[in-house]
Amino acid sequence: MTELTQLSLSDARDGLTKGDFSAVELTQAHIEAMDTHRDLNAYITELPELALERAKEADYNIGQGQAGALEGLPLGIKDLFCTEGILTTAASHILDGFTPPYESTVTANLKAAGAVTLGKTNLDEFAMGSSNESSYYGAAVNPWKKTGDNSNLVPGGSSGGSAAAVAARMCIAATGTDTGGSIRQPASFCGIVGMKPTYGRCSRWGIVAFSSSLDQAGPMTRTVRDSALLLSAMAGHDPKDSTSADLPVPDFEASLTGDIKGLRIGIPSEYRLDELNADVKALWDKGITWLKDAGAEIIDIALPHTKYALPTYYIVAPAEASSNLARYDGVRFGLRVKGDSLDDMYVKTRAAGFGDEVKRRIFIGTYALSAGYYDAYYLKAQKVRQLIYQDFVNVFKGVDAILTPTAPTPAFPFGENSNDPLAMYLNDVFTVPASLAGLPGISVPSGLSSEGLPLGLQLLTKRWDEETLFRVAGVLEEAADFTEHPFEGEG
User: Fold this and answer.
1) Which residues are known to be catalytic?
2) How far apart are CA 42 and CA 107, in angstroms?
């Protein structure tokens, strides 16, 4: 049944509708792939029995003509989404044994659409990281290898488990969350499509919070069409989330017209960094040519405050994290380490429960919010954030979309950046600006590096214009014709 794991989400949907195979067969094929590639550590919690039970229900619904939009399609769920009665860890020791009595809105929407949950995927602890190395459960592994080199590579982060699972055909698609690039960067590293919607398009209710003004759920898929299909099911207004937009959800799949004639594509000069990887630069130039050949007009643009995006992000995000993570104290749920007093229990629980990267960001954030430093750091960062957003507003008066690289390099080996936090943070240099501005963005796999590793190109559009984003991404995907697979000869 290996060939069933090679199907895209939309092809599998069509196959189930036509009766070419059953949801149980499709789910079983992906469970077998999970067994085959368990060494990738892409899942924290596997749910084969529950998945097969839901697949049987899906087959019944399909037979009765009552299929939902995602009926019988097996997905991986990032272990940042609370799932009722199912262990939810955020890849942290401090949430040991936590089984929520409620379901996140996004996963509830997917369940209502008939999706099958295969398991909870690995991530950087509390979504803080760009390599998946900070997970308490051990790092997920990128299924791709350098040509002639069998060394393990990082899958990117924080949604590295979801990216690895989709790339290795261990699920047909997956959910991720993106705070500063945590969907798009791992998608680039693993050769899949990763899409961050406009902030507020998907509900944050029931997603373990990292940075509340930045976190946004999104789809991780094999194709742009799959991304549009999955987002349509994930998105929607949620009265339980005050940042959720009360807007209708368009038919994103219908936006894939294949025609971008007359659209204006902006190329920001600020993204042409001196240290930009040569393969990434060459692919970016190739992407510009592809869109031009498809009838788009290429326009040079300026985003002058881009250079301040990373320092701004690494003040705003840790500040919000230090506030959000204060709730993990050993009193109400998760890990509790006994102490001689209440304060001692707090200290020992948090010391044992949080990993080094999470502690680092809590310290940074608490410092930035402390008396005497709030105005100098956090308040100033918020002002610069507004300037970054205004740059995009000004640019989108003259262009319909922006094309950039997704990440400055291909995937790198484990340990290469783990002792240098600043080098690790630079992985998000191209993705952070859109996160600060709340814009939709998508990474499309577009080629291989000289060492045989996947590279992605990123597209951005103005807020709430995911339809143009998918329209251009579909054309870019077709031109790139990326068909490579990490396990050549399989399937």
Assistant:
1) 78, 158, 182
2) 19
